[in-house]
Amino acid sequence: MPQFAARNQAGAAARVGVGTHGVFSANAIAEMRAAGIAEIVTCNTIPHETNRIAVEFVVDLLAQGWSERQIIENYPGLTHEDILACLNYASEMIKSEKVYPVHP
């Protein structure tokens, strides 16, 4: 990751590494942080410190009948407030959706 170190020395802004299905070797996260990646975010992968859970995943669990307690027990990084935030985000997205009739 020497390219990131060179960008840091040139005064580049902090970077965020984002990925789906991220699986890292033993010291990859430490190497990315040392290279100047300020935050690493992954989803839809095996559990590790960079995981974030997608809103649609939480909403889908609720739609499948999971209780809030079941979600929090299976995903201990989530809180009651996180679940409410997912539902609020989904609600806002639906409210902002525009549907226009199409006439043949």
Written description of the protein model:
- It is a single chain.
- With 104 residues, the chain is an alpha+beta fold.
- The chain is 46% helix and 12% strand.
- The protein is built from five helices and two strands.
- It has a two-stranded parallel sheet with strand order 1-2.
- Helix 2 (28-34) links the parallel strand 1 (15-20) and strand 2 (37-43).
- Helix 3 crosses helix 5.
- The chain is extended and about 55 Å long.
- The N and C termini lie far apart (55 Å).
**pLDDT averaged residue by residue:** 80
Q: Note the overall shape.
A: extended
Helix content: 40-55%
Low-confidence stretches: none
Number of helices: 5
Class computed from helices, strands and strand pairing: alpha+beta
Q: Could you tell me how far the N terminus lies from the C terminus, measured between alpha carbons in angstroms?
A: 55 Å
Reading side by side through the largest sheet, how are the strands ordered? 1-2
Specify the biggest β-sheet: 2 strands, parallel
| Element order: H for helix, E for strand | HEHEHHH
